[in-house]
């Protein structure tokens, strides 16, 4: 149970960074931390004690494999989620560079003061 | 010393290691149904090899290896392979049907019906997409600085 | 036990990444967090995810450094807004409340439910012929997910290229319509 609590603390750190920080690069980093914590939580939910990876080896006993393999479904969902996270990072970096060209700063407060 | 790119040491190391990285990426894509791996990690590794070329030698060399036109064609080809395999299942019934009647011998390379074909399509798509995004982030910046 | 040490290391890395003044150090610290996540995946029996996480982590680190380097490290306004602090306090309180409720419901660590997945694990090799069950789920049982993921990646990259291109952008002196 402690490990779930630590994972939720990591999530809260990411949430805090998104709301409080004023620098665009820090906000992108906070999104990344949020992404990691959610992915890790999914994999933690599917772990079986003394489990093995859900990949069958040659000559392995099937009954033992079924009894020991960890949950493969969260792994399949997280695998797509990681690549989507990379796409989100690329898009946010592009928007940040575009805003830097327009305003000359990464600071969110100064962007709000300059109109047009 | 006004050539683009990094120093001689970096260039020599990159020249040796890029082919090895590409080989590792192709292995991960091809053996995706047997060992850990598949289209996504293999595609990311292949894209990272081209990004390494672009960082070490400058963007001209990387664009000579893969121009933007061929990148766009390969990207569409990867997506169309994946979608075409998915649509072929309609001939026998449903979308994404694993339509090969004989799945092959387990633990050999060409098994598992449509899964290797889909892996190849996704690997092409992901690698070229990431390379294109990195080129967009680097190339357009440099073009703007010259004005 | 080792997992708890790794998670504490990752929390420390995340706090350093958010609180340091230097942007380059912040990016490198978040790289350390990503490497820790990758080692966690390897210990939890998910080698597929570990490979993907390591490759994606390296790539996003390169992209973030490319974005932050050669730009002046702007001085961020130090003033804290009282309204923002109150908002984050209320937000955190609600979040902690609901996550406590959720933690009472979910199964304890090491004992997953595996209602659908047991079917996949038992019949995956016979039905698809792939010995990697994760690959069988991604591309055979749940192909729609992968199709949507490819679409999202395409849209993200197309959006980045459209945002950054020079053609079609307004000149400096040009007026708004």
Your description of this structure?
- The complex is a heterotrimer of chains A (116), B (147) and C (177).
- Chain A is mainly α.
- Chain A is built from five helices and no strands.
- Chain A has a single domain, classed as Helix Hairpins, CATH 1.10.287.
- Chain A has helices spanning 2-20, 24-45, 62-68, 72-103, 108-113.
- By secondary structure, chain B is mainly α.
- Chain B has helices at residues 8-30, 39-57, 59-65, 68-92, 115-145.
- Among the domains of chain C are: 1-71; 119-167.
- In chain C, helix 1 (2-19) packs antiparallel against helix 2 (23-43) and helix 5 crosses helix 6.
- By secondary structure, chain C is mainly alpha-helical.
- Chain C contains seven helices and no strands.
- Chain C has helices at 2-19, 23-43, 47-68, 82-105, 117-128, 133-141, 143-164.
- Classes of the chains: A mainly alpha (116), B mainly alpha (147), C mainly alpha (177).
- Chains A and C meet through helix 1, helix 2 and helix 4 of A and helix 1, helix 2, helix 3, helix 4 and helix 5 of C.
Instruction: Please state the oligomeric state of the protein chains shown.
Output: heterotrimer
Q: Which stretches of chain A are poorly predicted, pLDDT < 50 over at least 5 residues?
A: none
Query: What is the straight-line distance between the termini of chain B?
Result: 23 Å
Query: Main sheet of chain B?
Result: none
Query: What structural class do the secondary elements of chain B suggest?
Result: mainly alpha
Q: What's the SSE pattern of chain A? A: HHHHH
Uncertain regions spanning at least 5 consecutive residues of chain B: none
Secondary-structure element pattern of chain B, one letter each: HHHHH
